[in-house]
């Protein structure tokens, strides 16, 4: 009988936890809906910075926000979300530009196991994806993003980070001929990248190679890439490939 009683208690506790989790998600969904209704009928580029402020506050005050997908805001108000492959952190990118040819973005990282839920601001562009690789026995995260500049120019970039004590720290893993870098950036001219396919930076599926599109003096793609090959400690520049 004692064993049955223990099982019943465990079932009650489990149901209680599930109910609380559902309640938290429902509350978060309701609050997201309130933000959506507040801003959805206004011109986006006049309210986008206020939207960012409200959403950041909502994320930081809700412990359950790490698991929440924010479907209304991602689908309708330009919020962009990515998780690291190992789920250790999550990124949010907000479009805070003025609606012209130039793009301005704010990005943040949220950590799964952080005792507090304050977001870390990341100096990057519009985050496109996150890759993960192990170097020197440590997980390294490669964040790809792009910038939109005035007129028809901009840049793609790939940044390397390690996670330590629930913070992202830049780490110089790209070994060129003369120095180590934590970021590689390549300019683009939109007349050569009208569909923004993002093939200015290629990362192989096995993470063995990272290729950076080689440009001529007029920022026109040459059809070749600068190749960096993975070693145990870094990515070493090894030459050009097609």
List keywords for this structure.
15 strands, alpha+beta, single chain, 39% strand, 3 helices, 242 residues, 5-stranded antiparallel beta sheet, flat, 6-stranded mixed beta sheet
Q: Tell me the structural class.
A: alpha+beta
What's the number of helices?
3
Reading the helices and strands in chain order gives HHHEEEEEEEEEEEEEEE
Strand-residue fraction?
A: 35-45%
Q: What is the CA-based Rg, rounded?
A: 22 Å
What is the typical, i.e. mean, pLDDT? 89
Unreliably modeled segments: 5-23
- Kindly state the percentage of residues in helix: 25-40%
Query: For the largest beta sheet, what order do the strands appear in spatially?
Result: 10-9-15-14-13-12
**Judging from the principal axes of the Cα atoms, what is the shape?**
flat
Oligomer: single chain
Largest sheet: 6 strands, mixed
Short structural summary:
Keywords: Signal. By secondary structure, the protein is of the alpha+beta class.
Descriptive account of the structure:
- Helix content is 26%, strand content 39%.
- It is α+β, with helices and mostly antiparallel strands.
- The protein has a domain at 126-242.
- Strand 7 (153-163) and strand 8 (168-170) form a beta hairpin.
- Helix 1 (2-39) runs antiparallel to helix 2.
- The longest helix has 38 residues, at 2-39.
- The protein is flat and about 55 Å long.
- The chain starts with a helix and ends with a strand.
- 25% of the residues are buried.
- The model is unreliable at 5-23 (pLDDT under 50).
